[in-house]
Amino acid sequence: MFSGSIVALITPFTPDGEVDFVSLRKLVEHHVSAGTDGIVAVGTTGESATLTVEEHVKVVAKTVEFAQGRVPIIAGTGANATHEAITFSRLLSNVGIAGCLSVTPYYNKPTQEGMFQHYKAISQETDIPQILYNVPGRTGVDLKPETVARLAEIPSIVALKDATGDLERVAIHRELCGEDFILLSGDDATGLDFVKRGGQGVISVTNNIAAADMAKMLSLALEGKFEEAEVINQRLMGLHHKLFVESSPIPVKWAAHKLGMIADGGLRLPLTELSQEGKTVVAQALTEACIY
């Protein structure tokens, strides 16, 4: 259902801070042409935290419209309030998305039982396939494998995006959740190794900048051609790391603007423009990756 190279798509803004739907259309076309296997619209990389509810829904709907069925669209629907996550799932239920990506509740630091009940409540309100998203470095809470296993028993919960970078969890999740449960990496630097260990793909920030390379690398990896995939991965390794030299998506939006992919690299407060030092670091990584 979900596999390969999936982009955690940035949300472009105009110079006056409005959503730039012209650039969004260009980005979708770029990913279709590059062979991207899926698009996450308004995930955390898409600045979901600073979009209004109306903007959030419109960006997802427009992404589906622009894709025209050529690539599956996954909507970011996570929130730290369960009722808000349910609302997003309901509002997006009829726009044509293939699935929902729901980050663990952030800041309020629920227990494992709290997270189980959170996702169970969401699943009871929609038939759309649900992807769990565990990123402790940003949320302050870690969805443990045992809890993932409990949630995997719910039919509509079909996958996990694991951004812990802990490769030992791939085998643990596979044993606990079964062969049919989809495991996706959310950490570019360890993404290829994640697939080598049995994962089905990567939801990637690097993909915003190196879509064709990521698509080729994941295609090779899923065919078991790991040596060829590793050649590409090593060339991109600087990007995997340096696109996080400051809080994401600050660096990747600057890079996308520098490459002419979006009209403006602006963000919404509290995120601010990439520092001059950061620009130097990211520009060097682009050069090393043979992208710029």
Name the descriptors.
13% strand, 292 residues, cytoplasm, alpha/beta, eight-stranded parallel β-barrel, TIM Barrel, schiff base, Aldolase_TIM, diaminopimelate biosynthesis
Poorly predicted regions: none
Largest sheet, in brief, is:
8 strands, parallel, barrel
Strand adjacency order, main sheet: 1-2-3-4-5-6-7-8
Strand content: 5-15%
Helix content: 40-55%
The helix count comes to 12
What's the rounded overall pLDDT mean?
97
Protein topology:
Elements: E1 4-8, H1 21-34, E2 38-41, H2 53-67, E3 73-76, H3 82-91, E4 99-103, H4 112-123, E5 130-134, H5 136-139, H6 145-152, E6 157-162, H7 168-177, E7 182-185, H8 188-196, E8 201-204, H9 211-222, H10 226-242, H11 250-258, H12 276-288
Parallel strand pairs: 1-2, 1-8, 2-3, 3-4, 4-5, 5-6, 6-7, 7-8
Helix pairs in contact: 1-2, 1-9, 3-4, 4-6, 6-7, 8-10, 9-10, 10-12
Question: Would you give an account of this structure?
Answer:
- With 292 residues, the protein is α/β, with parallel strands linked by helices.
- The chain has a single domain (4-225), classed as Aldolase class I (TIM Barrel, Alpha-Beta Barrel).
- The protein is 46% helix and 13% strand.
- The chain contains 12 helices and 8 strands.
- An 8-stranded parallel barrel has the order 1-2-3-4-5-6-7-8, surrounded by 5 helices.
- Strand 7, helix 8 and strand 8 (201-204) form a beta-alpha-beta unit.
- The model has no long low-confidence stretch (mean pLDDT 97).
- The record marks 44, 107 as: Part of a proton relay during catalysis.
- GO terms for molecular function: 4-hydroxy-tetrahydrodipicolinate synthase activity.
- This is 4-hydroxy-tetrahydrodipicolinate synthase.
- Pyruvate binds at residues 45, 203.
- Keywords: Amino-acid biosynthesis, Cytoplasm, Diaminopimelate biosynthesis, Lyase, Lysine biosynthesis, Schiff base.
